[in-house]
Every structure is written in structure tokens, then in C-alpha cells.
Amino acid sequence: MLRPERIVVLTGAGISAESGLATFRGDDGLWEGHRIEEVATPAAWWRDPETVWRFYTLRRRALLDVEPNDAHRALTRLEREGPEMLLITQNVDDLHQRAGSGSLLPMHGQLRMLRCEQSGRRQERMSEADLDARVFAECTCCSTPSRMRPDIVWFGEIPMGMERIHAAIDALQHGDLCLVVGTSGHVHPAAGIAAAARSVGAITVLVNLDAPVNVGDFDEVHLGLAGDVLPELVDAWLKEWSDV
Ligand code: NAD
């Protein structure tokens, strides 16, 4: 492959699996024992905020026990040594940030952050008190402190940074690269990124454990563990591009 001018990368839960974080759709179709509607919709927060808070507090706390893996680090290297890159992630963990990724867009929000229900302001809140599953966190921005919700894009809500995502895809030209890692291709609009990139002439490359539903949108498919496949791929690309 010739050296691209620009790269757009999309990652999903699969890239964090080798760090020990469960993916979304296990064999049982549940996420950590819950149905999606129980915990990841605005209606769930309205109906049963205690269950939703408990679920996300456990996910937030789990961040303290995991580390980035070789796949996260390979993307950091690609950004540092390769062409201009935007890394879009559906993941709500902080493993790309901790691996050193700079140009990062977490389109589904971040577990580290909470959002004031009244003012909409976001705060990074990871103190021990903020990780208590029994007590809702309160904001520090309102005169009468308001309850905070997880700063997560739930099903039925609009993903973050869509304008920037559209601009990054529009900027892709013939021969640029769109790399997708560890996602099942079920959740839109993220699942449409590869097809959109391909329609403007970018080469689309997939790294995933098994074939996702949108496997037909890729020019190159690498099936395997991201932690094995991605470092080798990035290594080979950087070598190829520096030889030209
Ligand atoms: P998904 O669970 O639907 O799909 C994960 C994909 O990764 C699968 O196709 C699977 O084959 C693949 N995979 C699993 N282990 C892998 C590995 N070691 N290497 C390469 N591929 C591997 O996840 P999704 O498509 O990202 O959609 C899930 C939604 O759930 C997202 O919107 C996200 O916000 C949320 N989520 C996030 C996390 C996280 O932040 N770590 C975890 C679970 C769910």
C-alpha cells in the first residue's frame, strides 16, 4: 500500500477485550449479565436510575484494574509515526488515552466523565466517592447540586462529534486509509463509517476476531486477536511507507 495522506481509524469493544473488558455482545447476547434496555437507554435511567448507576459504577471502577494492550499501543505508534490520523472509538473506556493516543474522538462518551442533569456540563469524576454504587454523584456547577448521569451516549441518543467524523471522512481521498478494529458492525452510525470511507475512495481494512455483519465493506480483512494482528500490520505499513 502506498503511504496515505490521511488515516481514519474506528475501534470497538473488541480492541479492549484482551485488556480484560467484556465486549458488548457475548455469546449470551447480554452485556455483563444485563439486557441493553435495562441499562443503556434514557428510558432505563428514567425508570430505574439506581440499577443504571450501579451498572455504570461497576464499569467505571473496572477501569482501575485494566491496562492498555498491544493493540492500543500499535495505534499510538501509527499516529506518532504515520500520516495525519483521527482515531474514532465507540469504546467508553479510557485505554486509548492511557496508551497515549492524542487525536481521539470517543463518540459514545467516556466512563471517566459524568454529566450534570441540569446544566449538561461534563466533569471528570473518578474519586472514591464518585465510585460509590449506592449514592448518586452530585454536580458542583449548580447552586442547588443536581444529580449527575453517566456521560455515555445511550441507545436512541445522538453520538458525540458527528460533525468532526463527517469532516474527517469527507477529507479522505483516493488511496487514503480507513482502519476498523474490534467491532461487530451492529451499532450505527459507527457501522457505516467503513462504507462511507470506501465511497470516497479510501482503502478499508478490518482487524476483528470474526467476520462482522458489514464485512463486505472492507478491501482487506484480517481475522484474529487485535493484540496479535495490529502490531504486525502497523509495523509492516510503517516499514513499507518509509521505504517509498
Ligand atoms: P461488540 O461487542 O458488538 O463487538 C465486538 C467485536 O470485537 C466482535 O465482532 C468480536 O468478534 C470482536 N473481538 C472480540 N475480541 C477481539 C479481539 N481480542 N481482537 C479483535 N476483535 C475482537 O462491540 P462494538 O461493535 O464496539 O459495539 C458495542 C457498543 O458497546 C459500543 O457502542 C460501545 O460503546 C459499548 N461497549 C464499550 C466497551 C468498552 O468501552 N470497552 C465494552 C463493551 C461495550
Write a brief caption for the model:
The protein has 244 residues and is α/β, with parallel strands linked by helices. Helix content is 33%, strand content 19%. A six-stranded parallel beta sheet has the order 3-2-1-7-8-9, with helices on both faces. Strands 5-4-6 form a three-stranded antiparallel beta sheet.
Assigned CATH class of the largest domain: Alpha Beta
Q: Strand portion, in percent? A: 15-25%
Q: Kindly state the mean pLDDT as a whole number? A: 95
List of distinct ligands in this structure: nicotinamide-adenine-dinucleotide
Integer-rounded radius of gyration: 19 Å
What is the helix fraction of residues, given as a range? 25-40%
Question: Sheet with the most strands?
Answer: 6 strands, parallel
What is the first-to-last residue Cα distance? Answer: 10 Å
How many strand segments?
Answer: 9
Describe this structure in words.
With 244 residues, the protein is of the alpha/beta class. It has two domains: 6-21 and 68-108 and 159-242, Rossmann fold (3-Layer(aba) Sandwich), CATH 3.40.50.1220; 22-65 and 111-152, SIR2/SIRT2 'Small Domain', CATH 3.30.1600. Helix content is 33%, strand content 19%. It contains nine helices and nine strands. The protein has helices at 14-17, 36-39, 42-47, 49-62, 70-81, 95-99, 162-171, 193-199, 226-243, and strands at 6-11, 84-89, 104-106, 109-116, 122-124, 148-152, 177-181, 203-208, 220-223. The strands form two sheets. It has a six-stranded parallel sheet, sandwiched between helices. A hairpin with a 5-residue loop joins strand 4 (109-116) and strand 5 (122-124). Helix 5 (70-81) packs parallel to helix 9 (226-243). The longest helix has 18 residues, at 226-243. The relative contact order is 0.20. The structure holds nicotinamide-adenine-dinucleotide. Nicotinamide-adenine-dinucleotide binds at residues 12-14, 16-18, 21, 23-25, 90-93, 108, 182-184, 186-187, 208-210, 212, 225-226.
